Amino acid sequence: MPTKKNFIVKEKLHIFPMEAPWMYLPIPNDKVPNVRPGGWGSIPVMATVGKTTWRTSLFQMKKGYFFLPIKKQVCKKEDLAIGKEVTARYVLADK
């Protein structure tokens, strides 16, 4: 069985300004797995920030950019704040 490629990004944490705002990390195009996106342009991944790992997806933004949503619980547990530089690791999730 082939080893899954690990991706690592270090980006500033952003927020989507909505009624129920949520946070995300922008993902550079060279850090997007080379697979065909599924529903809603998503790519399922297992993500890790600090000591917290969870199943999520990379989602497409306009113009082919992707983002990694960061759960509120992760932000709280890892003491993350908007504008703070965050290191995230992720691999493709099993289907």
Describe this protein's structure.
By secondary structure, the chain is mostly beta strands. It has one domain (7-92): Elongation Factor Tu (Ef-tu), domain 3. The protein is built from 1 helix and 7 strands; from the N terminus they run ββββββαβ. It has one helix at residues 72-77, and strands at 7-12, 14-16, 22-27, 42-49, 52-60, 66-70, 85-92. Strands 1-7-4-5-6-3-2 form a 7-stranded antiparallel sheet. The relative contact order is 0.32.
CATH H-tier superfamily: AF2212/PG0164-like
CATH topology description: Elongation Factor Tu (Ef-tu), domain 3
Order of helices and strands: EEEEEEHE
Radius of gyration: 13 Å
CATH architecture: Beta Barrel
> How large a portion of the residues is in β-strands, by DSSP E?
over 45%
Question: Shape from CA axes?
Answer: globular
CATH C-level name: Mainly Beta
Unreliable stretches: none
Number of domains: 1
Structural category is mainly beta
